[in-house]
């Protein structure tokens, strides 16, 4: 019973952020080709969104390894 809380899946939405960031990173510059500033901003925002999702899904809550 001590491990019951440990084995619960986290409801962080990290997987959604990873998928959304990847789609934004890949597809938005294609649609925003007429405006290079918005295309670059979409690439940066997609990369940041995917990175945040990766952090929430895989890295948050891990202890330091000694």
**End-to-end Cα distance:** 27 Å
Tell me the structural class.
Answer: mainly alpha
Evaluate the radius of gyration: 16 Å
* Biggest sheet architecture: none
Count the strands?
0
Apparent shape: elongated
**Proportion of strand residues:** under 5%
Which consecutive residue ranges, at least 5 long each, have pLDDT under 50? none
Compute the number of helices. 2
Helix content: 55-70%
Overall pLDDT metric: 82
Q: Order of helices and strands, N to C?
A: HH
Oligomer state of the chains in this structure: single chain
What are the salient characteristics of this protein?
66 residues; 64% helix; mainly alpha; elongated
Provide a descriptive summary of the structure in words.
The protein is mostly helical and 66 residues long. Helices cover 64% and strands 0% of the residues. The protein contains two helices and no strands. Helix 1 (14-31) runs antiparallel to helix 2 (36-59).
Q: What's the SSE blueprint?
A:
Layout: H1 14-31, H2 36-59
Helix pairs in contact: 1-2
Brief account:
This protein is an all-alpha fold. It has 2 helices and no strands. The chain starts with 13 loop residues before the first helix and ends in a 7-residue tail after the last helix.
């Amino acid at each position: 019973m001590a491990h019951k809380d440990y084995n619960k899946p986290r409801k962080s939405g990290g997987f959604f952020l990873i998928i959304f960031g990847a789609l934004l990173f890949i597809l938005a510059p294609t649609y925003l080709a007429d405006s290079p500033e918005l295309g670059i901003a979409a690439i940066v925002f997609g990369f940041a969104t995917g990175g945040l999702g990766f952090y929430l899904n895989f890295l948050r809550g891990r202890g330091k390894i000694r």
